[in-house]
Structure formats: C-alpha cells, structure tokens
Design goal:
5 helices, 5-stranded mixed beta sheet, Mannitol-specific EII, Chain A, single chain, alpha/beta, 22% strand, 40% helix
Length: 148
C-alpha cells in the first residue's frame, strides 16, 4: 500500500508544544486541515496513548500518533509535525520526540499496511533527523517522497 498523501496543510514545521498531548493535538489539527479527520480524532489519539502507554514512540525522536478507524476519520491521511523543542512521551528508550506523525486510516484492513509503510520510510534512521531539521513544508514533503 502506498502511504496517504501529504498535502501542505498536513505539515507543521518548527511547532511549539507544551507536552505530548499538545504535540498530538497539533498533528490532529493538521489532519483536520487536510480533510482526513474531524476535530474529535485528536482526542481519540490521546485516549489510545493514555490507555496503552507511549507505544506510539516507535523510534528515537519519532512518534506515530493514530487511533482506530472510526467516525472521526473522513479519509486516509498523514500529517507531520516537527517540534522546535522536543517533548517527552514517557517512553523508556525513544524520548524525547521531535517529529510527530499523525495517521488517520478509514478502514481497518488498510491500517496495518499504512503503519508498515511508514515503518519502511523510517528504516533509514537519518530520515527522522532530516525531518527534525527541515525548515520548510516542501523539505518535509521531499524527505517523505524520497523515502517512500
């Protein structure tokens, strides 16, 4: 499966977040702006982390915020938020986080494939650092495109 598109509306560069919840809300807001999710999706992503712990911190410096397909998901979507100052999610090995991905997938059968597709992007550990240091939306889009 190819990854969902990454429109400019779904990218935030150099954002400021007070904590991990704020960082996840930024990713959720980007998904809303891109038309992939409704406002309530941020709360669902936060609820998943509250219930299951910081499992979303999938690599050093990288969190993949997502929730199950549901009524708040309008279309498959990907958002990327880079943080000016890293935040702690409470992960024992991969904190602090500078790059937060937001993922909204409309159907359960595509959800795992999308997560696997993102994992492939970040098999190249330099991709996280490149995203964290990107200074423009276009740079973020280019990094994702070259690593798809």
């Amino acid at each position: 499966m190819s990854l969902p598109p990454l429109p400019a509306e779904a990218v935030v560069v150099g954002a400021t977040a007070t904590d991990w919840r704020d960082a996840v809300r930024l990713a959720g807001a980007a998904l809303v702006r891109s038309g992939a999710a409704r406002e309530g999706y941020s709360d669902e992503m936060i609820r998943m982390i509250d219930e299951h712990g910081p499992y979303v911190v999938i690599a050093p410096g990288l969190a993949l915020a997502h929730a199950r397909p549901g009524p708040d998901v309008l279309a498959d979507g990907l958002a990327i938020v880079t943080l000016a100052t890293p935040v702690e999610f409470g992960h024992p090995h991969n904190d602090p986080v500078r790059v937060v991905l937001g993922l909204a997938i409309k159907s359960a059968d595509r959800h795992l494939a999308a997560v696997a597709g993102l994992a492939n992007v970040f098999n190249d550990s330099t991709a996280i650092q490149e995203l964290a240091e990107a200074t423009s939306i276009e740079a973020v889009q280019a990094i994702m495109e070259e690593n798809r």
